[in-house]
Amino acid sequence: MHNIIAPRPISRPSPPKLQPTPQGPKKFLLFLLICGIFGLFAYWRGMDEVIIGDDGALVLSPERQDELDRRIYRLDNAEQYVLIAMYDGHYPCYNCGPDTLKIFLFAGETWKYGVTIQGQKGRYSTKKLNGMGLDYRVQLRSNIHNCLKAEAKMIFHYPLMPENIKRLRPINRPPGNKNDL
Hints:
flat; 181 residues; alpha+beta
């Protein structure tokens, strides 16, 4: 007869017990010092935009006020523009469907409607427009609200334009507009 010895159960070593590290006053003071430095930095960083005026009230710094005035001026003097094909040819089409990446446009047909508060030079370089065969034409100069309304009307009415209706597969917005807004 054979003596069968039952296997011993495998015991796994227990993980070492971690001793809590005392959070002494030195670590707490270091934490407070770091927080204080970051707090002061944030305070000073923001305070260069605000100064104490002649009457003792807080006002915007002259630099910040100038920046605000320039922004408001640009918002009041926006442009609603159209990008027109300069010559007959194939142009990128962002909404012609996944199987059609380009669309044929005749010279003078619309590629995109848009709005900018930066003017043509801030929005498109002449080199880029010429490279794409597009001409930038302002349709409306007004405040940003009126320009955005005009742009929306042009984009939404695009399906009714004769240049779109004559296509075998009309599209729902100009080829260069990726979405309605």
